[in-house]
């Protein structure tokens, strides 16, 4: 099988698994009154997903290091199918949604880190950013399908019908994974070479090695902004539609459709960001993307009063730039950190990145509840979005420090100094 066909099939598999990520966010405007949830509780359900996902990503990193990325991808895929099925039929109120969406997250990480590892094993550094960008873009397409599809199905059969879309996506993803990975070698580094899969010594090395430390910190605060934005964008756009039309704030389909449009456009960011980083350097492109999305975070909520078409244009640019550096962070990780520390690095960044992703949707909702109690929705949304941007400022700072460290290594003639320049 050619590299191009292999990548297309793997990306389509990732698309199917990605549907579970947004089926709940699409229905937040409708589920809040139906289940009697506050904004904080609605955000907590999304946080439960990210909490489970942290464990899943760490497990996927450990399993991929011990048993190989191919075997991990396929094995955890079956668990993802089961988790999405339990969530679809079991979530009927805040408590059950909190438990079962967290459970679904607990099983969902097998298509992310192992998928990126499989790409890194197959593609050289010169084209790795572009290949990983395509993989991230496939997930964005899956998020868009999840948003629109779940909202449409929920209109006919309730939330369970909307959630069943995730089950269908997981099954499709698993079938395609079995096909595309049938003849793919399962690479397992010999234990005598790699040493322990995850070790305290590797954690210490990650902290003491400046480029490794900065790439993990940059990803952590990238995840804070991105995961908070994805959780609340459909609900925000629904509220904006209601504000401009005088309609109900439960216009879930309108908000989900507009948010889906931003995910479709964000595919350009993933594809272009990865390709640009192959050509112009990892850190330079990360800085452009992260600073652009930061500017959007800081002002996005306050722009709610703008004409709806203009607000949507900003949302398109926002999602494009917020996701545009995701693949670059992953490519940088594989190039800055040597193989013997890579499993630990994946585990640490999963814990820190998605740990922040646990906090951001909940804190966003908490701000909505507190500021919104005053009765001004623009203030509530404005401060909630600004919170994302203020905390995320750490990300570009860490990327700039990484850039300076690499420039210093290059000037000193280090063999690894060219990476990311």
Describe the structure.
- The chain has 421 residues and is an all-alpha fold.
- The chain has a single domain (3-184, 196-411), classed as Growth Hormone, Chain: A.
- Helix content is 84%, strand content 0%.
- It has 17 helices and no strands.
- The protein has helices at residues 3-18, 23-35, 39-67, 69-90, 94-106, 113-122, 125-180, 191-194, 200-208, 210-245, 252-280, 282-300, 308-324, 326-336, 339-372, 377-392, 394-411.
- Helix 11 crosses helix 13.
- The longest helix has 56 residues, at 125-180.
- The chain starts with a helix and ends in a 10-residue tail after the last helix.
CATH topology: Growth Hormone, Chain: A
Cα-based radius of gyration, to the nearest Å: 20 Å
Q: What is the element string, with H for helices and E for strands? A: HHHHHHHHHHHHHHHHH
CATH H-level superfamily: MFS general substrate transporter like domains
Q: Which class do the helix and strand fractions yield?
A: mainly alpha
Features:
disordered C terminus, 17 helices, 421 residues
In short:
The protein contains 17 helices and no strands. The longest helix is centred in the middle third of the chain and has 56 residues. It is globular and about 60 Å long.
């Amino acid at each position: 099988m050619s590299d191009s066909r292999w990548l297309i099939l793997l990306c389509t598999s990732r698309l199917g698994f990605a549907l579970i990520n947004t089926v709940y966010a699409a229905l937040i405007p409708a589920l809040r009154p139906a289940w009697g949830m506050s904004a904080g509780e609605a955000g907590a359900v999304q946080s439960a997903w990210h909490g489970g996902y942290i464990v899943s990503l760490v497990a996927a990193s450990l399993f991929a290091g011990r048993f190989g990325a191919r075997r991990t991808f396929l094995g955890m895929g079956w668990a993802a199918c089961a988790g999405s099925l339990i969530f679809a039929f079991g979530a009927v109120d805040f408590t059950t949604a909190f438990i079962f969406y967290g459970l679904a997250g607990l099983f969902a990480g097998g298509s992310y880190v192992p998928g990126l590892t499989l790409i890194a094993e197959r593609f050289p550094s010169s084209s790795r950013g572009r290949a990983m960008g395509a993989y991230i873009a496939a997930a964005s397409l899956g998020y868009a399908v999840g948003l629109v599809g779940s909202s449409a199905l929920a209109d006919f059969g309730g939330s369970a019908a909307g959630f069943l879309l995730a089950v269908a996506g997981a099954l499709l993803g698993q079938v395609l994974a079995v096909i595309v990975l049938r003849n793919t070698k399962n690479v397992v580094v010999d234990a005598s070479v790699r040493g322990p899969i995850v070790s305290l010594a590797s954690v210490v090395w990650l902290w003491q090695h400046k480029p490794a430390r900065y790439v993990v910190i940059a990803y952590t605060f990238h995840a804070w902004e991105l995961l908070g934005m994805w959780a609340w964008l459909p609900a925000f756009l629904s509220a904006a539609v209601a504000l401009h039309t005088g309609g109900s704030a439960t216009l879930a389909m309108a908000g989900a459709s507009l948010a889906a449009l931003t995910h479709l456009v964000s595919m350009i960011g993933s594809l272009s960001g990865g390709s640009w980083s192959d050509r112009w350097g990892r850190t330079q492109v990360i800085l452009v993307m992260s600073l652009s999305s930061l500017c959007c975070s800081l002002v996005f909520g306050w722009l709610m009063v703008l004409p709806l078409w203009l607000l949507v244009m900003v949302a398109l640019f926002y999602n494009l730039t917020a996701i545009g550096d995701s693949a670059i962070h992953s490519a940088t990780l594989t190039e800055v950190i040597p193989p013997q520390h890579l499993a630990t690095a994946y585990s640490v960044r999963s814990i820190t990145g998605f740990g922040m992703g646990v906090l951001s949707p909940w804190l966003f909702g908490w701000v909505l509840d507190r500021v919104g109690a005053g009765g001004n929705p623009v203030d509530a949304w404005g401060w909630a979005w600004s919170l994302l941007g203020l905390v995320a400022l750490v990300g570009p700072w860490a990327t700039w420090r990484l850039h300076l460290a690499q420039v210093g290594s290059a000037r000193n003639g280090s063999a690894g100094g060219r990476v990311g320049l």
